[in-house]
Amino acid sequence: MRTLVFGGSFDPPHRGHAKLLAAAAEKIRPDRILIVPAYRAPLKNRAPAATAEERLALVRVGLAQRLASRWRRKTQVEDGEVRARRCVFTVETLARLKGQDPAGELHFVCGADAAATFPRWKDPARLRALASWWYGARPGAAGAAPAFFRRVPGRFPDISSTELRAALELGQDEGPAQLFAETLAEIKRRGLYGQARLARLSATLKPGRFAHTLNVAALADALARRHGVDAARARLAGLLHDAGRRFSSPELAAYVRRRRLRVPFGAQTAARTPMLLHAYVSEDLARREFGVRDAAVLRAVRRHTLGGPRMSVLDKVLYVADACSADRRHPGVERTRALAFDDLDAAFARCVVEKLSHALARRAWIHPATVALWNSLAAR
Ligand SMILES: [Fe+2]
Ligand SMILES: [Fe+2]
Fold it and tell me: For residues 76 and 56, what is the distance between their CA atoms, to the nearest angstrom?
């Protein structure tokens, strides 16, 4: 029997996987197809974003079902690695399959990126003896497949699962376009890849505030990549920075009292401009309601309105992203946004000046932390 083995993390499965598998089936013409989701891929240093059971469910609805019927009938989702509940090496899986059908042929298919890492897989010599090796070329793939890999005819779309997950977290449309509708529906139903967080934010914030939140998270993501800080942290901070804006001013003041949140000049702030309390409330919600434990993310959320001493790059990224997100309309905002990509510190200083000028123009009370922030910048 000729068996096509298609392994991967499938975190999540997307149209690129389906296209590669269909092309490989046409070329190899197998008697059966086994899709083998990994419990955890040995060479990836991060655990998958979705659990093995969740990815298995996604593969069932959004990959196996999408093959042409002549191949679908021959396809099984092989859950051996998932049931092992540990990182299983491909050599173990192929040896097990070979044991089930010693006279059969195994054909292993993977993407170009995985193929390029083959020399680091466990027991490469034995792997080569167990199966024939195939890869799908992807423009922009990192590294080349070893010479004994055969190429599956066709070009396969340049879809990175990491970027797809980032787009899903940010509620962007490009991500879902790379997913089959039933995969996206299952992701939403299960609240995976940040969908539960988006649903919660959209249910608690007014539409304009929710749109602003998505803009801030997208800009924070882009600025973080530009300035070499963790984009996932920046997205999370951006998504949660205004979670506290679900409350009115009196509710914010009551929340801060009830939870005994430490706010600099808290009593004055509550009396003069209670809306400024929302950053501290957002931090508390991020921790308690959204389960964030990352101190750097919580700190950036807490500091996004009033700033603080020794602002980290992530703190500044969020502060600036909030002040010049795509929905902001004040004069000069495009210039500040462009500047933020070249010189984050200069953009940050400009945002503080704009905040102060705006308050002075309205003859508003200026929070002492904002004055201190400005003085620390002016002293440089
Ligand atoms: Fe805010
Ligand atoms: Fe904001």
Answer: 11
- Helix and strand totals (H; E) in the chain: 21, 6
Measured distance CA(56)–CA(62) in Å, rounded: 10
Distance (angstroms) between ligand 1 centre and the Cα of 50 equals 30
Query: pLDDT tens digits, residue range 85-144?
Result: 888 899 999 999 999 999 999 999 998 888 998 999 999 999 999 999 999 987 776 778
- Residue 370 one-letter amino acid: T
Position 4 scores a pLDDT of 97
Beta strand 75-77 with 32-37 is: parallel
The whole-number average pLDDT for the span 11-16 is: 93
Q: What is the mean pLDDT of residues 327-348?
A: 96
> Residue holding tokens 């910048």?
377
Residue with tokens 């092309």: 23
Domains in the chain, ordered, with CATH?
A: 2-159 (3.40.50.620), 194-378 (1.10.3210.10)
Over range 311-323, report the average pLDDT: 98
Q: Is the dihedral of CA 18, 20, 21, 27 positive or negative?
A: positive
Q: Ligand 2 (ion): which residues have CB within 5 A?
A: 242, 322
Residue 45 confidence (pLDDT) above 70: no
Are the CB atoms for 251 and 314 separated by under 8 Å?
no
For residue 215, which of 93, 337, 310, 131 has the smallest C-alpha distance?
A: 337
Better pLDDT: 331 or 289: 289
pLDDT value of position 111: 86
| Distance from residue 367's CA to the centre of ligand 2 (Å) | 17
Give the span between the Cα atoms of 352 and 343, in whole angstroms.
15
Residue 14 burial class via C-beta count within 10 angstroms: exposed 0-12, middle 13-18, buried 19 and up = buried
What is the arithmetic mean of pLDDT over 155-163? 84
Which ligand is nearest to the Cα of residue 305, counting in written order? 1
Residues pairing with 134 in the sheet: 109, 150
